[in-house]
Design a protein that fits this description.
CATH architecture of the largest domain: 3-Layer(aba) Sandwich
Number of helices: 5
Number of strands: 10
CATH topology of the largest domain: Trna Endonuclease, Chain: A, domain 1
Structural class: alpha+beta
Low-confidence stretches: none
Helix content: 25-40%
Order of helices and strands: EEHEEHEHHEEEHEE
Distance between the termini: 50 Å
CATH class of the largest domain: Alpha Beta
Strand order of the largest sheet: 3-4-2-1-5
Length: 187
């Protein structure tokens, strides 16, 4: 990160913003965290805009000690429990999704929100602008049923956008994640 110090970020509604442009570039360049404000498809880290992080990204970076999050309204440092509460109000099954996000990031993948694909995460091997996300990941709880209709819907979506669909099953007590992926063959 910038000069070996933690970067200041601000919680603004349901996003975390790094206003310092140099710090924003470093965080983005570090492993494609966030998106520069107003630049939907950045070509590298040479941008002049603040960096906007999703809550899960910002929470991860804060837990990894790379950023310090402040409340934009009060200017005070955000407490971890308050940030976690905010995340849980925005994400259904936040703890489970965070465990999957963390596992993928620690495994070297670049993870972005998968909302435009109708799933939890789009996962890149190298990063946006370098390669296309080869995987779509949906988080499912161990007790949830995976239906044939759900598999077909997910498979149709994934093949339409040329991606592999995977289900991530978080095991909270063991702090581990199992992945189940599907390959689609044409006869």
């Amino acid at each position: 990160m910038v000069s070996g110090s933690k970067v200041r970020a601000e919680l603004v509604e349901n996003r975390i913003v790094v206003w310092d442009i140099v710090a924003a570039r470093e965080i983005f360049k570090d492993n494609f965290y966030g998106k520069p404000l107003g630049i939907p498809k950045p070509r590298g880290a040479d941008f002049d805009a603040p960096l906007v992080l999703d809550l899960i990204e910002g929470y991860y970076l804060a837990k990894e000690g790379k950023i310090i999050i402040y409340n934009a309204k009060t200017g005070e440092k955000a407490k971890e429990k308050d940030l976690e509460k905010k995340c849980k109000s925005e994400y259904m099954y936040f703890d489970e999704k965070y465990l999957v996000y963390r596992e993928l990031r620690r495994s070297g993948y670049v993870v972005t929100p998968g909302i435009k694909f109708g799933c939890d995460f789009a996962v890149y091997e190298h990063g946006p602008g370098i390669d296309h996300a080869p995987y779509l990941v949906q988080v499912m709880l161990p007790e949830e049923n995976l239906t044939a209709t759900g598999i077909v819907l997910s498979g149709r979506l994934a093949t339409t956008v040329r991606k592999q669909f995977a289900v991530a099953i978080p095991h909270m007590e063991a702090k581990k994640v199992s992945f189940l992926s599907f390959d689609w063959w044409r006869a």
